[in-house]
């Protein structure tokens, strides 16, 4: 069922993207890997088993650059002829209290996590139209459904990804393209160590974090059987629901979970 399918993964040089490339390649997919870091990307590509036909593809591009994305997708079209699966995974983080925010970092994050995803979807649409049972998996986050202190901008960007996924699911229904919103919880990928953290906010407790392979396996499952939305941790699904139904209780539970010096609002 999977052998011969053609996939494009953004943010494929490390973490969830790299793990997804390996999981898909092992399932027989032909994979195009897109990221900014050529050395890391080539290392990931070198570790992939070869596809049944053709070859995998590496694309050095920054999703914030519209022309680079357009050129990369043109290469995918020339090499693959179409796309069966698009995995929008590229993203960066930024931890800071609102009073510490630097506007340039905010813009870079929104350009990467939101604008880059939108442009990737737009440029990939003609290829998806030539796909077989095409699927789009947008990698959001549990914080897209429940914002957390110290990550207001990142959470806002992932809330945007959730909204984009919901809109595209309807916009592209007539095209026969399934769109799903994947919301991982804490994932042990080095993501927190790599992001800007000017105020020195403490790292989250990763003792019960998922591995990137777990998220990658979910991407494969969603390509085989698309669903509108998947949140990988029931506790976060509950917290998101409580944020709407009982926001004060949600705040208390979140502060208890985060620890540190955060306080529950009095009102």
TrEMBL record:
EC nos: 1.-.-.-
Limits of the Ketoreductase domain: 5-185
Tagged with keyword Acetylation: no
InterPro entries (alphabetical): KR_dom, NAD(P)-bd_dom_sf, Sc_DH/Rdtase_CS, SDR_fam
SUPFAM superfamilies membership: NAD(P)-binding Rossmann-fold domains (SSF51735)
Entry keyword Oxidoreductase: yes
Record's keyword terms, sorted: Oxidoreductase
Signal peptide: none
GO MF terms held by the record: oxidoreductase activity
Family: Belongs to the short-chain dehydrogenases/reductases (SDR) family.
Listed name of the protein: Putative oxidoreductase
């Amino acid at each position: 069922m999977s052998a011969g399918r053609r996939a494009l993964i953004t943010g494929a040089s490390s973490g969830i993207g790299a793990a997804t490339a390996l999981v898909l390649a092992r399932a027989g997919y032909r994979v195009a890997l897109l990221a900014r870091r050529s050395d890391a990307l080539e290392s990931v590509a070198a570790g992939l088993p070869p596809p049944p036909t053709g070859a995998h593809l590496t694309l050095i591009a920054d999703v914030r650059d519209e022309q680079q994305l357009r050129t990369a997708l043109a290469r995918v079209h020339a090499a693959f002829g179409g796309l069966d699966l698009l995995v929008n995974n590229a993203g960066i983080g930024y931890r800071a209290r609102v009073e510490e925010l630097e506007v340039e970092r905010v813009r870079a994050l929104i350009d990467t996590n939101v604008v880059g995803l939108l442009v990737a979807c737009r440029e990939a649409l003609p290829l998806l139209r030539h796909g077989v049972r095409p699927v789009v998996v947008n990698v959001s986050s549990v914080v897209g459904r429940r914002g957390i202190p110290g990550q207001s901008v990142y959470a806002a960007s992932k809330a945007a990804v959730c909204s984009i996924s919901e809109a595209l699911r309807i916009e592209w229904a007539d095209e026969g393209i399934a769109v799903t919103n994947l919301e991982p919880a804490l994932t042990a990928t080095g993501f927190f160590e790599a992001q800007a953290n000017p105020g020195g906010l403490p790292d989250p407790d990763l003792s019960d974090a998922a591995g990137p392979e777990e998220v990658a396996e979910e991407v494969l499952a969603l390509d085989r059987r698309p669903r509108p939305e998947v949140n990988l941790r029931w506790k976060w699904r509950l917290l998101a629901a409580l944020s709407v139904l009982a926001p004060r209780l949600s705040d208390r539970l979140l502060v208890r979970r985060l620890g540190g010096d955060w306080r529950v609002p009095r009102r």
